[in-house]
Amino acid sequence: WTPRWSDEVVEAMDIWSFAGTIGVTLLIMESGMHINFEKVRQIGGKALIVAIIGTVAPMIVGMLLVAVLFPGKLYPDGFSAGCALAPTSVGISIKLLGDAKMLNSMAGQTTLTAAFIDDVFSLVLLGLLSSLADGAENLA
């Protein structure tokens, strides 16, 4: 038995989920608009390394925290915690670099490109996490 209003709550959650998806899409689109692709050719390797470290390090920290605090729950709980820590706020990066007038500098473009790549990696991780939540036994 569920209350009559439960269907309305589910529909409202679908609306919020849709609004969140639109928000993330617009945020990533905005970050892509600020990337200078000529500079990306020069800094692409460095930005990729920074993005990989920026994704892997929080994953490791999250998994280690779960392993220490909740022994025996490394997978999937540790993976979930790592996925929660992995995303970078590209919106904050754009705002801070813009305020400091460093958005078009090499350091600014490296930071922005790395944050953009990190967010793409994080979206892939969240997709994997979602498939685990839907009942997938493993990530293969």
What structural class do helix, strand and pairing data support? Answer: mainly alpha
How do the SSEs run, as a string of H and E? HHHHH
Number of domains: 1
The tally of helices reads: 5
Describe the main β-sheet briefly: none
Shape: globular
Radius of gyration: 18 Å
Organism: Haptolina ericina
Membrane topology: Multi-pass membrane protein
Subcellular location: Membrane
Keywords: Antiport, Ion transport, Membrane, Sodium, Sodium transport, Transmembrane, Transmembrane helix, Transport
Provide a compact summary of the structure.
This protein is mostly helical. Helices cover about 80% and strands about 0% of the residues.
